[in-house]
């Protein structure tokens, strides 16, 4: 059984990005997560203990995290938990690792802009004729909405260009 967990916290280290000799992309960083609580005696918010996690991202997620996440940013991470005990000489401890399934910026603390990555189509995939797509938009698709919008109403750049949506 794999345990899934969702965490929020601060990226505490610069993400470390590597590509193995087999071509596997791996990006990892440390995440600091602490709980805040309201102390009624002090009439103020106080920080609780900080929990430290090692976040590891593989393949395409690793590539995206390496180019999108920086030290000091607040993020949300969902992934599988691995708890490991370690020993080094006279010291020992426990490390908690998260194999990430999803990583994103915590929008409670700021704004972000999403850019969808497009993977090139394989050459044997069927191609659509110019000006058409392979999706059934139904009766009220994006093209119908563009045609019915009045010229006085502001339209998004994609609608003004006449292009179809990329998904």
Automatic annotation (TrEMBL):
It holds the Pfam family SSB. It comes from the Bacteria. Residues 123-167 are annotated as: Disordered. One of its GO terms (molecular function) is DNA binding. InterPro entries: NA-bd_OB-fold, Primosome_PriB/ssb, ssDNA-bd. SUPFAM superfamilies: Nucleic acid-binding proteins. Keywords: DNA-binding. Residues 134-149 have a biased composition (Basic and acidic residues). This is Single-stranded DNA-binding protein. It comes from Microcella humidisoli.
